[in-house]
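Researcher: Structure for this, please.
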Amino acid sequence: MENDSPVIQDVYKEIDKYQERMVADISRLVRCKSVAETPKPGMPFGEGPYKALQMALEISRELGLKTVDLDGYVGYAEYGEGEEYVAVPVHLDVVPEGTGWSVDPYEGVIKDGKLYGRGSSDNKGPSVAAIYALKVLKDLNVQTKRRVRVIFGTNEESGMACLDYYFQKEPLPLYGFSPDAEYPAYNREKGIMSVFLKKKTEELTRFTPIVSITAGSAINVVPESCTVTLKETWNDSLEILKDISEGKPGNVYFINEKPGKVIAARGTPAHGSRPEEGLNAVAVMLQYLFEKLPSLNECEFLQYIKEN
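Model: Predicted structure, token format:
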């Protein structure tokens, strides 16, 4: 800090004044459960992401910043003057919270000097930090050559449709950066590809006891659980459990349900950018089923999923 310019040193001093308020505002955003939901009128990604967007805009207005809401898809807060602008895109939506929390994931709990909650680091905490960066520039009356715009996305975790809509309404920025990774900076990012496979397969139901297979909570999360509904006529010696939460990762259990029987596999969830940290419950389940049901080898579709 000693070699920083006087303006930067003033920024450091000013931002410290807002620490408690910033933490409180992060908690306000965390309390908005913003997992993608069924669209509603004026809420293109569901009620949760919309509420988070309105909260971010409200926080920005409370700090005296200019705000714009682009039809519930996306919004922004802005400081400065000029035709050109610098973009700081953030996102307010989150992936499903999963299991294993020791606190309410949507409460923004302060514990042992840390704030816990879904989205606290990805990406609601950095979103609030970006808002307050604009506030400090405003407080210090810093004269910028271009506008600085914090863009609030609401569909980053499931398709980026928010930014598609944004660029239908707004011009491209001169340049920008996103506080959605680790400090200090990354100049590249992993690519992502979402693949949907669909196939009608009579052999699955005709030659096996499988009625249905269900797994996953979001497209960019390693599935934590996988359930398979079986015909009632199939018997197995596995222990029948009352609740899948009693199971350990890597195991398969029976659950009592009517009609039919349900097998549940337990995995370990992980973000899609770091799949090696998780255990895919679908892989656990298919490994088990192929061991127990030789007839599944006739089902090319399931065999392809198992091997890939």
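Researcher: Any notable elements?
Model: The longest strand covers residues 85-91. The chain has a mean pLDDT of 88.
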